Amino acid sequence: MRGWGDDEPPARRETGTGPYAPGSPEPVSHDDVDAQYVKSGALTGSAAEHMLDQVEAATERLLAERLLTDRGFIANSVTRCAVEDPDSEAPASVPSRLPGMADSSFDIVSKVDHQEADNALQQARKEVEQRYDFKGTGASIEWSGEAILIKANTEERAKAVLDVFQSKLIKRGISLKSLETGDPVAGGKEYRITSTLKDGISQENAKKIGKIIRDEGPKGVKSQIQGDELRVQSKSRDDLQEVQRLLKAADLDVDLQFTNYR
């Protein structure tokens, strides 16, 4: 029996080069040349059928690779069009914005970890009870509902208890901007100081923050008040980071946190 290689063109067999050289792998290159040999009648029978199968398989593989390359180019072009220049026209036959793409955003909140606040109060209470300079002064600190109540027989000792509490808050990672403290009030033989923890952003502060973003922030950044929080949106993540740096440097009487990055 003759192998399919026995039907190869004599000229190519004699040169010992190309995909039909001795020891060469099955032909997966020179597909156009192989097809020409088949069509010219140089190859016949099973050898011709085998070669045509090789040509068709290689052609399908090249088409698939080209299709994937073209799709990647189109997707990258659409992404740049939608993100870098939303007003520009996308390439023809593709949408101007990829499905599911949305603006980046984050929320501005002001929240207090009440468990950490309670830990700070308990530590302050223990220190006040143990310190010698508070002995016999009636100094104390405790919860009174949602408020913190400080007592002492002099205004100076009451303020000293407040200082202890504030230092504990800082060590527990709670900003003093979250603590609203009233003036010492005399009542009978003692002075009282009442403090509260501020949770959420007031409407007044929310409007101030919105104005800072609008007047000083990057163009295209939008902010919206949502209850006691704000949501900031932009097509650029860099612009969102710039807004955060801007607000951290702003002179605000509220402690801000940035959460819910999307």
UniProtKB/TrEMBL annotation:
Superkingdom: Bacteria
InterPro entries: UPF0234-like_C, UPF0234_N, YajQ-like_sf, YajQ/Smlt4090-like
Transmembrane annotation, as ranges: none
Location of region: Disordered: 1-32
Keywords, ordered alphabetically: Nucleotide-binding
Family annotation (PANTHER family): UPF0234 PROTEIN YAJQ (PTHR30476:SF0)
Family named by the database record: Belongs to the YajQ family.
Function: Nucleotide-binding protein.
Descriptive protein name: Nucleotide-binding protein GCM10009807_27530
Taxonomic lineage: Bacteria, Bacillati, Actinomycetota, Actinomycetes, Micrococcales
